[in-house]
Structure formats: C-alpha cells, structure tokens
Amino acid sequence: MFNVAHALSPAMLKAVAEQFRDLNPKPLGGAPKDLVAEGKKIYQDGIPKAEVPPCASCHGPDAKGADAFPRLAGQLHDYIFRKLTNWDKERGQDKAKPDNSAIMGPIAHNLTEAQVKAVAAYLSYLE
C-alpha cells in the first residue's frame, strides 16, 4: 500500500481513509471461534501487565476506526495475525517518516502469538 499511498497528497490520503473507514463490509470470519472471547477481552481491556493498552482506545470501541487509526472490524484473521507478528516488516509505511502507526511497535512485540491469534479471531467476526 505504501507504494501507492506515498504519492497521494495529504488531502487525498484523508479522503481515501475516510472512505474506507465508512465502509461497512460483512465480516469474513473463518477464524477459530473459541478464541473470540479472549480476543474481545484483550481488545477492550488490554493487558496491563504486558503494557498492552486496549485496542479500543485507538481503533474505537467497535473497531471501525477512529481519527487516523484504521478500521479493524471484519478484517481477515490471517491478515491481522501476519501484520502483528511481523510488525517491523509489515507495517507498510516509510520508516524514514514515522506516522502514528509507530505506536504499535512495542504493543505488537508485547503480545504473545496466542494473544495475537485471539485478537485477530475477535476482529474477524466484527461487522
């Protein structure tokens, strides 16, 4: 996405982000349903002992995005899992010009693989 997005003006980036944020796709699901409850708890409450804040504090209580933070509701389980477990490689932005996604680095590193799978499962079933 960076290869395309870096060529857009700030106004165009904002317009594209708002367009995608306002979409309401049907959830694709497909993730293990037995992980959803744990993922919901992590999304809503975070993991204080691991210094992981609630995902909802940035992405919104319904995971539909908030301000500059992207919508996560209905996203593919495998996509979320890959992004979080490979954050340094997958974040898709110019490391020379950090944006607000840089805040996710320490959060992604503090989540265990099982916790990432749970959060990804929860998000994959949200509308």
Describe what you observe in this structure:
This protein is mainly α and 127 residues long. The chain has one domain (2-124): Cytochrome c-like domain (Cytochrome Bc1 Complex, Chain D, domain 2), CATH 1.10.760.10. The protein contains 8 helices and no strands. The chain has helices at 2-5, 10-22, 36-45, 56-59, 77-85, 87-90, 104-110, 113-124. The chain is globular. The two termini are 23 Å apart. The mean pLDDT is 86. GO terms for molecular function: electron transfer activity; heme binding; metal ion binding. Pfam families: Cytochrom_C.
Q: What key attributes describe this structure?
A:
single chain; 127 residues; mainly alpha; Cytochrome Bc1 Complex, Chain D, domain 2; 8 helices; 50% helix; globular
Give the helix proportion (percent range).
40-55%
The SS-based structural class is: mainly alpha
In what range is the share of β-strand residues?
A: under 5%
Overall shape? globular
Q: Please give the radius of gyration in angstroms.
A: 14 Å
Overall mean pLDDT:
86
What's the N-to-C terminus distance? 23 Å
